[in-house]
């Protein structure tokens, strides 16, 4: 996008007018786009069929955000959109991702495949099977709703679209499939002629932590007595009923950062006026469990996404969710407490960000939208202790009106694994290190499971396995396994298959022997692991083969299985991670509008292993999420130079640990020296997290620089400190930036938010804030001359540390709107219909006159001789506010120009 807009906005005459209709907005957008045609290449026919697909208003700023799509032949062009910000009827900011010369680029107008064939092709190519789709509803001749096809958790909407592919616009079917395991929500474009997948995105954003070492935690604090904390104590609401939750409350990041406390009525009366357990907008709770208007928190220990509905803790009629935490046991034994904490924090993030503009009209997550604005029926489904993964968390964000899902997982135990198996007698007597699996019954903790060991022997009837001791084929010695602890090798089949086979043969537990010299692993369930109901674990190759040899030799081996730690860590108690995951929903709903979930694309090409190397983008999705996690866990007394690691609790680090990013976050370059140049360093990485880390670093610096100027306000809801200003500007910036933003786009949107902000007192204060922001970004290489290149590429950006030129630099104070040149030049008439006269008091010689629009695009340029009166005719300019620049060898003078 363009780097000049921020000060242009400062000179606009903004006035409030009656609300415009959608077509009025479209007309104004079309006029501005055509006005820019000389630079953008957009023609009148390209924007003839613009249509508004989403519209919302930000209460704090009074800005109406209009998101318009592009069509040809009444067929939408995928992700071709224009984002316009209006103050009344004045267009004050605009970005676009429109396609040009559309008519000459389309490849077809009639699809060869019908929507059922397209959906079947997509399912097959995604590795989900053929699907058994049927049409539930024909919305239009180009839009259909299909059933799940037995491959999707949700019904499948299908729409005919054009997709940019090289120089062509290819006719395709746009559809989405939410996979049955919940791990992907594929949004795909399928060629309407060949069935090939042309374009693909995953609405599930996964934040894996598995590559990081887990360390011992020095302490986990749990308060024995209940500490009562009243949030918003001076605000009462008769609709509330004394709700109380024993949690790690705002702003604590985790149990390592402070004590659990019982908080009473923490609901915000504006964001949740009927409390957290209401859904109908009438006084009185509809649910006494951890379910309500904003979130439904339940366990998914089975990892099957509600196939077997998990439980939610019940607070009874008093809504008293006071459940104990116990870290010296398997996390499942404090499931009620963990789920309560997950429910509390989802609601806290909802209520806080509501104050900053992530509200109902802007696509937030609620069952009932009490204002009647936008679409409801989309509370967050939050899965506690999800059994489908480990060392992870994710968030799936569909368009407005469809439920997002947050999945929180357990994390590997901190410290070395313990001795799970003890052999009591004989030459092998002693303890053996084991690692519990991710499925089946937990390893006993109170009373050891004691039984003889027995080998599981199969008939090697399958094609893949040649080891009769791996239980991958039909077990032949079932009688020997009844009541025994089965011993078998890791082999060619899934862990769930072999353990289930041993259980069905009568085994009471299973020991799997690793087949490589590496340490034992936490076995995944595979397709049938959810059917296993007995404890199972893995031991090392060395230990296991010794046991196998002894059993083959005919020895009787009696063993006990008992778990004494270290225990897995529950991600539901890492509040920074919860806020991070929720943040993905925020950035997805606000960028490109609430009805477009494809505007945060961190990868443009996938294969079976995920993002293809070199196809990860510059989009900073993970950056905003890290930022929300940091902001909502800031505490009084923190400083910018502090070390703030992400996910320290989950990965078993102390509070000053490095976390899961390349460095902790800190304004101290000795701790975090990342700059815009670092983005290119991460070019070869497929994960989006390193790029997001650089973006968070920049806006974290910005936040602390604003705090230094305006102070820190502990009231995160309604405070006026630098932290509140920063969070508001970031939220406003998300609404202003284009679809799939790069770093310069994100920077420019935040700067544009400064100019639109009525919460900044006057032009002097806006200039001061703008100066702080420019210096923050420039210090990390995203200065005035920085160029992001193509958002699809990570390596093509150019860093810069410069500030805007003097006449546009807010550090020099507000831009003057006095006559050009302080008496050297004057223009008349102004306002004008396009006839412009520039009176030159003192001859200046050769120069150039430029007219620039609100987004920094030069719409008129002419070389002139600056003497006497220079007469210009600027034809074809749309009504609005512009800058007129007179450039000479001595510099550039600027004034506003109003076209009537």
Class computed from helices, strands and strand pairing: alpha+beta
Find the count of extended strands (DSSP E, 2+ residues): 38
What is the beta-strand fraction?
Answer: 15-25%
Q: Low-confidence segments, ≥5 residues, pLDDT <50? A: 1-19, 210-239, 816-821
Q: Main β-sheet, in a few words?
A: 10 strands, mixed
Number of domains: 6
pLDDT averaged over residues: 90
What is the highest CATH level, the class of the largest domain?
Mainly Alpha
Q: How far do the termini sit from each other? A: 27 Å
Rg from Cα: 31 Å
CATH topology of the largest domain: Neutral Protease, domain 2
Number of helices: 15
The outline comes out as elongated
The CATH superfamily of the largest domain is Neutral Protease Domain 2
Helix fraction bin: 10-25%
- CATH architecture descriptor text of the largest domain: Orthogonal Bundle
Name its key features.
Nuclear Transport Factor 2, Chain: A, 8-stranded mixed sheet, Elastase, domain 1, Peptidase, metalloendopeptidase activity, alpha+beta
Task: Provide a descriptive summary of the structure in words.
There is one protein chain. The chain is α+β, with helices and mostly antiparallel strands and 900 residues long. The protein folds into six domains: 5-99, Nuclear Transport Factor 2, Chain: A (Roll); 115-206, no CATH class; 228-412 and 570-577, Elastase, domain 1; 419-565, Glucose Oxidase, domain 1; 601-812, Neutral Protease Domain 2 (Neutral Protease, domain 2, Orthogonal Bundle); 820-899, Immunoglobulin-like. 20% of the residues lie in helices and 23% in strands. The strands form eight sheets. Strands 1, 2, 3, 4, 5, 6, 7, 8, 9 and 10 form a ten-stranded mixed sheet that branches. Strand 32 (825-828) and strand 33 form a beta hairpin. The longest helix has 22 residues, at 689-710. The radius of gyration is 31 Å and the shape is elongated. One of its GO terms (biological process) is proteolysis. InterPro entries: Fungal_virulence_M36 (IPR050371), PA_dom_sf (IPR046450), PA_domain (IPR003137), Peptidase_M36 (IPR001842), Peptidase_M4/M1_CTD_sf (IPR027268), Secre_tail (IPR026444). It is found in: Secreted. Its cofactor is Zn(2+).
């Amino acid at each position: 996008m363009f780097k000049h807009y921020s000060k242009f906005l400062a000179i606009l005459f903004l006035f409030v007018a009656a609300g415009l209709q959608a077509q009025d907005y479209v007309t104004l957008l079309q006029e501005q786009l055509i006005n820019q045609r000389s630079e953008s290449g957009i023609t009148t026919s390209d924007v003839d069929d613009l249509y508004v697909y989403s519209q919302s208003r930000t209460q704090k700023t009074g800005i109406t955000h209009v998101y318009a799509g592009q069509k040809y032949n009444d067929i939408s062009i995928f992700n071709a959109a224009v984002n316009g910000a209006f103050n009344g009827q004045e267009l004050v900011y605009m970005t676009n991702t429109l396609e040009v010369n559309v008519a000459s680029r389309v490849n077809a107008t009639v699809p060869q495949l019908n929507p059922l064939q397209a959906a079947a092709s997509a399912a097959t190519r995604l590795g989900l099977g053929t699907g058994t789709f049927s049409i539930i509803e024909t919305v239009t001749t180009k839009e259909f709703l299909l059933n799940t096809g037995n491959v999707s958790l949700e019904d499948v909407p299908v729409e005919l679209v054009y997709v940019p592919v090289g120089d062509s616009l290819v006719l395709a079917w746009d559809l989405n499939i939410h996979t049955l395991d919940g791990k992907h929500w594929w949004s795909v474009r399928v060629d309407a002629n060949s069935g090939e997948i042309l374009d693909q995105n995953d609405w599930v954003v996964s934040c894996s932590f598995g590559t990081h070492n887990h360390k011992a935690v020095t302490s986990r604090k749990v308060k024995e007595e209940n500490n009562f904390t009243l949030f918003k104590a001076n605000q009462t609401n008769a609709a509330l009923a004394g709700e109380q939750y024993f949690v790690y409350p705002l702003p604590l990041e985790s149990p390592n950062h402070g004590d659990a406390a019982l908080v009473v009525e923490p609901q915000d009366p504006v964001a949740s006026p009927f409390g957290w357990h209401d859904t109908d907008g009438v006084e009185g709770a509809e649910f006494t469990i951890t379910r309500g208007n904003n979130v439904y928190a339940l366990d998914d220990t089975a990892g099957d996404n509600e196939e077997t509905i998990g439980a939610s803790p019940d607070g009874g009629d008093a809504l008293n969710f006071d459940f104990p935490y116990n870290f010296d046991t398997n996390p499942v034994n404090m499931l009620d407490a963990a789920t309560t904490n997950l429910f509390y924090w989802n609601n806290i993030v909802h209520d806080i960000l509501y104050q900053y503009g992530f509200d109902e009209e802007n696509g937030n997550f609620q069952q009932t939208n009490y204002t009647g604005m936008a679409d409801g029926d989309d509370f967050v489904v939050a899965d506690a202790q999800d059994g489908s993964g480990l060392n992870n968390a994710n968030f799936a964000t569909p368009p407005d009106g469809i439920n997002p899902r947050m999945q929180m997982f357990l994390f590997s135990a901190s410290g070395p694994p313990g001795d799970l198996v003890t052999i009591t007698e004989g030459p092998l007597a002693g303890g053996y290190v084991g690692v519990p699996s991710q499925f089946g019954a937990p390893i006993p903790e109170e009373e050891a499971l004691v039984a003889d060991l027995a080998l599981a022997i199969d008939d090697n009837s399958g094609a893949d396995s040649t080891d009769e001791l791996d239980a991958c084929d039909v077990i032949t010695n079932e009688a020997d396994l009844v009541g025994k602890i089965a011993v078998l090798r890791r082999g060619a089949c899934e862990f769930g298959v072999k353990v289930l086979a041993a259980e069905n043969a009568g085994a009471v537990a299973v020991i799997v022997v690793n087949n490589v010299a590496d340490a034992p692993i936490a076995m995944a369930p595979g397709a049938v692991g959810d059917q296993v109901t007995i404890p199972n674990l893995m031991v090392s190759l060395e230990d296991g083969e010794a046991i196998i040899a002894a059993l083959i030799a005919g020895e009787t081996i009696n063993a006990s299985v008992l778990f004494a730690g270290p225990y897995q860590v529950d991600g539901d108690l890492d509040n920074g991670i919860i806020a991070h995951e929720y943040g993905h929903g925020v950035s997805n709903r606000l960028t490109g509008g609430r009805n477009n979930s494809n505007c945060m694309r961190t990868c443009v090409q996938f294969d079976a292993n995920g993002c293809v190397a070199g196809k990860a983008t510059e989009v900073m999705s993970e950056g905003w999420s890290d930022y929300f996690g940091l902001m909502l866990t800031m505490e009084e007394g923190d400083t910018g130079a502090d070390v703030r690691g992400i996910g320290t609790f989950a990965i078993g680090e102390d509070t000053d640990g490095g976390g899961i990013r390349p460095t902790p976050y800190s304004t101290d370059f000795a701790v975090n020296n990342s700059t815009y140049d670092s983005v290119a360093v991460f070019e070869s990485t497929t994960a989006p997290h390193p790029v997001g880390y650089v973006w968070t670093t920049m806006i974290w610096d910005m936040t602390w620089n604003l705090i230094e100027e305006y102070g820190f306000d502990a009231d995160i809801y309604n405070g006026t400190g630098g932290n509140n200003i920063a969070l508001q500007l970031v939220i406003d910036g998300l609404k202003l930036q284009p679809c799939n933003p790069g770093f310069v786009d994100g920077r420019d949107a935040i700067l544009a938010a400064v100019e639109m902000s009525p919460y900044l007192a006057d032009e002097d204060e806006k200039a001061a804030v703008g100066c702080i922001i420019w210096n923050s970004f420039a210090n990390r290489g995203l200065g005035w001359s920085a160029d992001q290149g193509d958002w699809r590429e990570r390596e093509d950006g150019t860093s810069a540390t410069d500030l805007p030129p003097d006449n546009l630099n807010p550090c020099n104070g507000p831009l003057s709107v006095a006559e050009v040149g302080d008496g050297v030049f004057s223009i008349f008439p102004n306002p004008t219909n396009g006839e412009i006269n520039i009176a030159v008091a003192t001859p200046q010689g050769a120069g150039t006159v430029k007219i620039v629009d609100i987004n920094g695009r030069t719409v008129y340029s002419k070389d002139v001789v600056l003497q006497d009166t220079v007469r210009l005719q600027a034809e074809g300019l749309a009504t609005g506010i512009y800058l007129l620049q007179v450039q000479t060898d001595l510099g550039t003078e600027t004034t506003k120009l109003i076209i009537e």
